[in-house]
Fold each of these.
Amino acid sequence: MPSNSCPSVLLIYTGGTIGMIENPETGALENFNFDHLLKHVPELKRFNYRISSYQFNPPIDSSDMEPLYWAKLVKIINYNYNQFDGFVILHGTDTMAYTASALSFMLENLAKPVILTGSQLPIGVLRTDGKENLITAIEIAAARNDKGEPMVPEVCIFFENRLMRGNRTTKINAENFNAFRSFNYPALAHAGIHIKYEEHLIIRPDTSRPFKPHYLFDTNVVILSLFPGIREQTVSSILHVEGLKAVVLRTFGSGNAPQKEWFIRLLKEAAERGIIIVNITQCASGTVEMERYETGYHLLEAGVISGYDSTPESAVTKLMFLLGHGLSHTEIRKRMNMALAGEITPNIKKKR
């Protein structure tokens, strides 16, 4: 078991910009060996922590992230669960929100912090944001309250002074250090001179139930983003992809879509074939309210279900997760309307 006097953190390096240094001869960015972490980040020596590391070999670019690697991360965390107080995953930024969302569902009843972080500049560059992100993520992973409980027993992303629930985040910037935002849920903590935790926003585990890791996914899911002028053939082709089981439908505003006869007909036929269609908004902030306008209500009649204020990353990984566990069509629809890990805020249904 982890020591109460000396917090312990396991660093898991998957790949990404944060783990790169510049080759002085070629100028190319290369992954460095995390066995030499303290050499590159000497500030970590000031922590009275036991810090161990695990490195993917070879490291992977986050563009190549997929469920196979999510399962690997869960296996690493599960295997080391009783040996460490918290976990920090170093990850490329491009798909970090997908990984954070997936892990939030895979690590059921999590009682320890799992903090994902990365950087926009390599950790070996003078102006890197990587050092600050890494140091603070480790501090959060090790932090405990007055009762000796972890401050944040959730899967989170820490980036540029904000700690955000992982399944609420989206990458919004490829250039600046403020790469991630959680538009529909407040930050769980802000890092300034002190780290200020918003304890009332943090999910606590059910102490009567054990931690339960999951590994199964079904990737027969697509994201369909609507746009003015979208063609019938395009929608039909997507909804008739062989083996398709679920669709994340990205609609306009509060969940609105074209009222063309062919569009509603194709959705209804897909729903009748057993394809689960989840409606989320293309807007960065806000929620789907299909009862609000006539256009949204027609989607309800066609068998489309609400994704409320879910991010695309959370909606697609949640569907993959539920489909992977062989649940019935009815049960999946039910759970998509439930918050499994704080990923959505269901609306109170209005009478029509």
Note: Residues 28 and 141 are 32 Å apart (CA to CA).
Amino acid sequence: MKISLKWPVVIIAFLITFSLIYVANYWRQQNLVVEPLREQLLTLDAVEAVSMEVGKANEISVTLGYVPHFAEVYREIESVLEVRGEDVEKLTIVDRRNPYLLSLYEKIQFALMEGERQGNYTKMNKEIKLILAEEKELQSYSLSVDQEAIYLQLGAGEYFLYEVIPIKHRSIAFDQPKSRP
């Protein structure tokens, strides 16, 4: 028995099948992953907006309003992502920064990086307080540290800046004592 295939029909069938699979995957991604995650993040008080690109659910951008304790809000966002089992490669926090706050961040950036590298957070905190004590326009300032990151919050008027500096965990290699023969 001889099977005769018409190539145009096969190609059209393939394209229709591929399109249906693509549409089904897009629908599943939107309705079962992206939208529920967006809605859950929007239930947090400080979250004003959430954006995720379809196909890039591992990159999330969260717009925050002013919060009195940035570190707590950031941990809440991370816990929502963790509970949902989302593997987020990049979490971006969108704030309302202005040139003044950016200039302050540049002034204290060296102290922040030195504190992160050396792990001397008390010294880092003292240096940053000294630098920021001279600023008259700065209305709020918060610096927090946990096992995972350093959290910085600066505020001036209706503008605020949030920064998260991840702490890179370094393992210290000790030489093993050598046994004597």
Note: The helical segments are 7-42, 70-83, 99-118, 121-133.
Amino acid sequence: MVSGNVQNNSSKPGHPPLWLSWTVWGLGALFYLSGFYHRVAPAVMADAMMRDFDIGAAALGHFSAFYFYSYVAMQIPTGLLADRWGPRNLLTTGALVAGIGTLVYAWAPTVAVANLGRFLIGGSVAVAWVVLLKLSTRWFPTRLFAFVTGMALCFGVVGAVTAGVPLRLLVERYGWRVVMVVSAGIGLLLAVAIRVVVRDDPRARGYASYAPEASNPSGPQMGIGQGLRTVFRYSNTWLLSLAPAGMVGPVLAFSGLWGVPFLTTHHGLSPAQSAAITSAMMVSWAVGGPIFGALSDRIGRRKPLYLWSSLAALAGWVLLVYLHPLSTPLLAVLATGIGFFSGAMIVGFAYVKESVPAELAGTVSGVCNMGVMMGPMLLQPAIGWVLERNWEGAVSEGLRWYPLSAYRTGFTLIVVFSTLTLVSVLFSRETYCRQLGAGSQQGGR
């Protein structure tokens, strides 16, 4: 008779069914979607908010950037907490605080109070991306990691698209404050759903985990300071954290804030048409993410796709910024092309994760995502500052009117950031889609 506590190979738990993996991951992805929605919503509400709060471009740029101030500040703590506290707790708390922050923002009597709400939203949704990466390593096989990461970006950009034309139409009908109150309610309901359904690891549901042994929760943990010191010994950590800043920063500075007023003012488009152009950039970004992720997995290389895509995106920005006038179809083609090639930044998360030992995946993902959000955090207020400095005193329909030369000067920063991506990827070290072994110093030189 076989003892009840002895298991043969046939009694070992199998991996979770894909429908369950996608359900658990999907709730986290919905929270990530909401983060993208809040990230770019100011673009289509800019005119209403500038009138409501009586502010100019510089103040609007800082208002939008308050999201990124707290988002960036939370990235390293988020990576460390994801390794220790667990995805479920982080996602639930994040969704709850985001809902509260949205209410503060919606009911704000002044722009200072609105900044506080925006700050709360940014800090809370900051947990979503790193936690999704953590869930991906535990609920999906390694061969699907880059594809699943690309699908996460796709979810996020769906949120950005809802903050385009659909949001603009709702704001015109009901007002931006009412729409934000409803958004807060949806966020609070999501917090409840996450708490009920999401689990940190398949083992909590009786299944086997896909996580590498070194990153299992029961394994030995490296101290916080030691973990940070270790990941920064690898040159790819620095390079692959700078690279997405120069790719994501321009996309979110343009689509998330300054593209709509620029296209409306200097290309004769309506706010809805301008929102459609910027949404096209976000949609193509979403499409490009999983395509480049899957292609990178298939060819077994990270660097070539990232490098050539960054060059193509840079070329697109040069044309968009410095050629004028441009026809509406050409604007759409450029925006779509830039967005698609910018989707290659998704390869960087698998790239940087493979560049350090597996047990530091959460920490290095947080560092990399901090680099991602440094781009829009710096670009959005910087472009606003440039616009304000070049304002000639003109006012149109109660709003300040900024000349084409002001936008061109401000958007030159986009070109500079895009060049940063190209240079950073050029000097990065290929991993050939293989995880660096624990304790190895490969790549540190």
Note: Confidence is low (pLDDT under 50) at residues 1-9, 214-219, 438-445.
Amino acid sequence: MYKKEVLKNGVRLLTVPMPSTQTFTILVMVATGSRHETRENNGISHFLEHMFFKGTKKRPTAFALATELDKVGGEFNAFTSKEYTGYYAKVGGEHAALAVDVIGDILLNSKFERAEIERERGVILEEINLYENNPVMHIEDIFESCLYGDTPAGWDTIGTKENVSRFRRKDFLRYWQGHYQGKNIAAGLAGRFSARDIKAVKEIFARVTGGEKNKLENFAVKQTAPRLKIKRQETKQANFSLGVPAYGYYHQDYEAAKLLGVILGGSMSSRLFIAVRERRGLAYQVHTDVEGYRDGGYLTTVVGTSPDKTEKAVKIILEEYKKVSREGVSAAELTKAKDFIKGKLALHLESSDELAGWYLKQEILDREVMAPEEYSQKISAVKLSDIKRVAGEIFQNNRLNLAVIGYRIKENGLKRLLKL
């Protein structure tokens, strides 16, 4: 069971002991991401995340930082999303104090040297090239751009090449000082740790200024007709994402949408995996996912297929969307989906890093924190009527969004198909 304590400056500390594990994870999450950016500084959250690993006064270089955890076989990394940024280190429990010190050091004492900024600028520009040249990775960015348009929710988290090329040290300092404040920070310890480790975390993060809590402007998808966005790129395969707006984390139907996603394309025995891949051999990759943010989300099915098979694959998915919205699902399908989600959850949460992420993500998004057992109960409570009602609400003509990356894409043919 987790415990939560709030420091005087607003930093939230969650501790999740795991007596049976030999590992320890410290995860620190900050409530800032690309949705907190402007058009002019889009990409700075992600760039700043990189800069925390380039040296502190105590560990002056990236090599010195990496060596500290490499020498004990530890893992450390960071990630940036639209709504939060996270930093973690995972080590054997006997090295917990080292992991705490390293993560605290980078977040409070990074130097942000100009020479390192210039070097990392090139790294991030190549990272952008990596995403743009990998349709499987990039298709969801194109889908969100299609769905949310020219808004922070629709911009790429990694930013634009133009912005990345012009950020200067003063920009990073301003963003760091303005966003990395106590009320925006949650720290979590999971696995095998001691009271000394908890005390050390408190002492480190007590030095952070309390500041003001970041705010997000609510966004709503205003859509009156189907949308199609095509990125023409010479590839042997066309990758597309076909979906609809759904629900945010706080919505009462979020869990029902998650179950619907599993039934449609969440596993190798799901409806769309069987219909698109197994029965017709149209694709290797077929997957339905449900993404949630604070105040919105979406359900989408991603497929990679040949350009001449794209229209056929889109038609099959739309037929299944229409069918499930009108007929619902069977009791056997719902039971299997519930067991699938609960089984995957059990597998994931065996490790200290996944368990830390489970609690911290909920905390940083200001969601009422649920233990895994509580979440499983919520999944179990979803009824057949909930699935049919949710499918009927989200699968409507004026909510359809299709994003495509590929070559020889027949735009007019796809436009004609976008109806239920």
Note: The mean pLDDT is 96.
